[in-house]
Design a protein that fits this description.
The chain is an alpha+beta fold. It has one domain: Jelly Rolls (Sandwich). It has 6 helices and 9 strands, in the order αβααααββββββββα. The strands form 2 sheets. The protein has a 5-stranded antiparallel sheet. A 4-stranded antiparallel sheet has the order 3-8-5-6, with no helix packed on it. It is globular.
Length: about 270
């Protein structure tokens, strides 16, 4: 598809764009990241995957009793740390959230063409799911963009207003749904900003062929409530972000641990 409404900068976001985000649950920012930042991020993603750092990070998250915090986290890679605090993104989140917000987590991967699709789901962290009073946002960064040689993203506009479990539509796998929007053509360095409660799916090419997809996603939460962390070493992650000066002292709440509950494994 060719998107009819894409933003290149937070300054380009109109009141209509923000109303659309509130109504539909997503905004598309084609070519949002600079070519230099994309190049640096791709190099770090290659290191993250090829040196086994991602595998160690997953082990530390899934079996914390056997593994302490990973020796290296994504945000400790220079370009990834820069991405977490990318000023144009944070300025847009200021406009979306309207209040302070806190960093939640960061994931980075080079997804193989034959990686199975991810069934319909949302990523709003709330246990149990009871309301949508506070906003949580995922910024999905597609370093090589999206095209017909890679897995695509489909979203279900308006579904972020439902109070539903994350896997309420998982039984549908990656099926095409009435009212969905398919996002499969974006230039390199594009970002899709989702309300985290929006149902979406990663839909791979039917033949499992094509090219690898360089993907980074970062999540942020509106302050004013306590959010469940998803990584057992979340305190270590926030502390390292502070030690590295990623927020440059300008956003005192961005890495504050006071906005989180204690860690509990997902069921």
């Amino acid at each position: 598809m060719v998107l009819s409404h894409g933003l290149r900068s937070p300054a380009a976001a109109t009141d209509d764009d923000l109303e659309r985000f509130a109504r539909e649950g997503y905004l598309v920012l084609p070519g949002f990241l600079s070519a230099d930042l994309v190049t640096a991020l791709k190099s770090e993603v290659d290191r993250w995957v090829d040196d086994g750092l991602r595998a160690r990070s997953i082990a530390a998250a899934t079996d914390p009793d056997s593994h302490g915090p990973p020796a290296l986290m994504e945000l400790e890679l220079p370009a990834h740390g820069e991405l977490v605090c990318h000023p144009p993104l944070l300025e847009l989140l200021d406009r979306i959230m309207g209040t302070d917000f806190v960093f939640h987590h960061l994931h980075s991967d080079r997804q193989a063409p034959d990686l199975p699709g991810k069934p319909w789901h949302h990523d709003y962290e709330q246990r149990p799911q009871t309301d949508r009073a506070h906003t949580m946002v995922h910024a999905l960064h597609y370093l090589d963009g999206l095209d017909t040689d890679a897995s695509s993203l489909a979203v279900l506009p308006g579904s972020h207003r439902e109070i539903a479990a994350k896997d309420a539509r998982a039984h549908l796998d990656c099926a095409t749904l009435p009212g969905e929007v398919l996002i499969d053509r974006l230039p390199p360095g594009s970002t899709v900003v989702l309300h985290s409660a929006l149902f979406h799916t990663r839909r791979r090419r039917p033949d499992g062929r094509g090219k690898e997809r360089y993907f980074v996603d970062a999540s942020y939460c509106q302050t004013g409530t306590l959010w469940p962390p998803v990584k057992p070493y979340w305190r270590h992650m926030l502390r390292r972000a502070e030690e590295l000066g990623l927020a440059d002292g300008r956003r005192p709440e961005l890495f504050s641990g006071r906005h989180f509950t204690e860690y509990a494994p997902s069921r």
